[in-house]
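Please discuss these two lines.
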Amino acid sequence: MRVNNGFNIPRLEHIAVWSESIPETESFLEDVLGWKRHPVVFGVSEDNSVFGGMELAFVDANGLWLELVQPTTEGPGMDFLREKGNGSLVELDFEIDDFDKNVDEMKARGVDLIGMDGVPLQGGGYLHEWVEVDGRIERGDERLSYLPFELARGTSIELFWEDPETGVVVRRDRDLRPEYKSPASSPRLDSVVVIGEDLEKLAAFYTEILRLERIDVPEGLARPWMALGNSSHAWINGNSDSIWIELIAPTSSNGQAGVLSTHGEGTILELLAEVDSIDDFHDQMSRKGIRMTAGDGVPLPDGEKAVLNAGSGDRFCYFPLDVSKGMRIMIFERGPAETSVFSKRDAAG
């Protein structure tokens, strides 16, 4: 973890995905994308007062972990799933190396962290999960805090620390056999998109509160399905193996009335995964019976394998949402190094 002027910089460790069925979501991620699930089995007990029971799983997205979350009992967790929908990207989870120090640092800057229930942090933020080890159920200890939603511009941002012996992430990383890792040839998770009304206010949260690095690339990919019109972009380095957070704010009134009114301020909108050849990827999907789209759900026209982003040369396509189990996933191939949005970003960073 980077340290800047004595402050511990959070590291984007995983992204939480709400799922109606972990086996079905896992099947798509592994069979179609080649992303593998780690075999660690864990969850939250049914008597949890905040969300109720949950089963969880980690999937290696070849660059970052996805945490699949499936509510198992009636209650707030199940209600949340029904509200947000299957495959919703609901949370950015940052790891910190000193929980109490982070609480103190935040307080010194006038930030009062909250718990999972949205009220001021109490009881040290402990969450007791269960972990299956050699057929036995053991306890996994984790401490969680959240940034106030208004401060995070509507995005759920978790800061977590785990017991170095019993934590679930600790157990996962302790047993990272080659067969549990996604192949290097699979699509590489590059970034996650967050939308907001005011780019500067949105970016300031990440740079001033989380102390992450901002990179400005004036242009961004046009996303026809979003009907953004004009938009402004900024990239935030997630401090985690070149994983980025792309911030997008529409600058036209129709974009603000459209994408923001539909999805809401701070929505984690989509995942971007890079491939070396989008033509080859398209053909692989065709052989699996999958017709890729431009993001609007309409299959790409016959003979077209991707959308060309004017100016940058970057090319992209999307999975139909029913195929991707509700997750909005863009697959892209970089254009020429001198024009590609992604190459310019990396060079600036």
Remarks:
- DSSP finds eight helices and 18 strands in the chain.
- Helices lie at 22-31, 76-84, 99-108, 168-174, 199-209, 253-263, 278-287, 341-348.
- The radius of gyration is 20 Å.
